[in-house]
Sequence to fold (143 residues):
Amino acid sequence: MASAHVRFRWQLRPGGQPTAALRRLTVAALERLGAGPVEVGVLVCDDATIRTLNRHFRDKDAPTDVLSFPAGFAQPDGPIYLGDVAISLETARRQADEAGVTLERELATLLLHAVVHLCGWDHESDGGEMAALEARLRRELIG
Fold:
């Protein structure tokens, strides 16, 4: 199976170099989910940006931790464009502090959640299947 292509855009950057590890996580998750060769875009932004996206696309005027935007369209010169993910680094940092985990782990958890959404799962309408799948993938890929 051809590997996925994951493109990151960092509006804000945490310390360290998390891009490579997050890219590996995303590719591994997509492979386990049977996504085939796809492309995914990831924006890591601030609370103001994600609040604007949340308001525009979900009519919720508040920041959130992660948003996913499934696309699933064929590109003329590449793989299926599966969709986009937006993660608020500021919210992720607060959540990591509250949970007593590293920021890198929280970013990985949020990214995994969004990737499962991009692959068609929806915890708001299923009977817990997405949560179970996500928990299994978290154990396998994040630890």
Summary: The chain has a mean pLDDT of 92. The first strand starts at residue 5 and ends at 10. The first helix runs from residue 19 to 32. The radius of gyration is 15 Å.
